[in-house]
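yo

u said u wanted the structure for the complex thing, so here. seqs first:
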Amino acid sequence: MSPLKLLFISTPVGAIGSGLGGGVELTLTNIARSLMALNHSVTVVAPEGSVLEEIPLIQIPGNLQITAQSQGRDALITLPANSVLGNMWSYARQVQHDYDVILNFAYDWLPFYLTPFFDCAIAHLVSMGSLTDAMDQMLEQVVAQFPTSIAVHSLAQAETFRFKENCFNLQNGFDLAQYQFNPTPKNHLAWVGRIAPEKGLEDAVAAIEKAGIPLKIWGVIQDGSYWRSIQMNYPNAEIEYCGFLPTQELQQALGESQALLMTPHWIEAFGNVAIEALACGVPVISYRRGGPAEIVKDGKTGWLVEPDSIDGLVAAIAKLNQIDRATCRQDAEQEYSLRAMGKRLEIWLDRVVQSRNS
Ligand code: UDP
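structre next:
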């Protein structure tokens, strides 16, 4: 494939490096690295305050967007004054003729609405399943006109949309050299993610209390009252909040865990933290729901548990000695390297460019 000039427009819910953007922050970085390794050029446009190493970055000021997952199905489309989302797309409009493809990482109405108004091809990486009617309708409108323009992270995520056949399943990819295999864990479990209701942290806390094993928690506290309610409701659970760490430190700490618990209440589109755990040799115990159910190989790289079953989690914790940590690392290497994702990205982007030119 001949080298492409790519412009990435990041999520408007937080600066890259803040953690507020959730998995999108690391996903964007990994996608940029995998494409640059294949000789494509990448420039990233992101909210002011963003931090990116060795990838050209344009910082755009403006007010952040409210996260989409905290609203109901009939939520209206809203934008704050001096919207960073609007500002990033104004910038994209001005420079569009310097690029072959604009890659949108925002789960927001505006970039989808703008797609037919741009001369440059726009590809959308959708980071969540169906959440609101207004977004679904706009996504469907884009698919009708640009059938190849949407990629997702898992089949389960695609299933939440009426246009599931049109979704390119990109999955995800990671720089596995950044994650060290740890064969000798300490006596605790891990939970990693944004602390917000859809991530279901309280189930993990209930399970470790029953199982009698400590839990270490890493991630941004996005919803303070939710976090306080968990602390109040489980006063005897041995939990320790360890803050939000950069990847290098996170992987080191995560590697010391017996297993990662994933207890999402929503359809997790992918679950970056599952791969990060496997890459360190850490088995994953997850509900059989959403992306993690496509990542975890039951009985081989972890255990899949009936959704919302605390007893199921406790039973899986008791069976952790049956999982070989080296197998977990090998699985991440085979399926989720940057190289493997780079190949998938080229297939998708080629389709986007071809269909725009035809
Ligand atoms: N993360 C991090 N440091 C932490 C905790 C989490 O960098 O201390 C990152 C983690 O690497 C992952 C992201 O937060 O990329 C969470 O993404 P995931 O896909 O698991 O869930 P999302 O937040 O997108 O729902």
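The chain has a mean pLDDT of 96. The pocket of uridine-5'-diphosphate is lined by residues 19, 22-23, 26, 192-194, 218-219, 244-245, 247, 250, 270-273, 276 (CB under 6 Å).
cya
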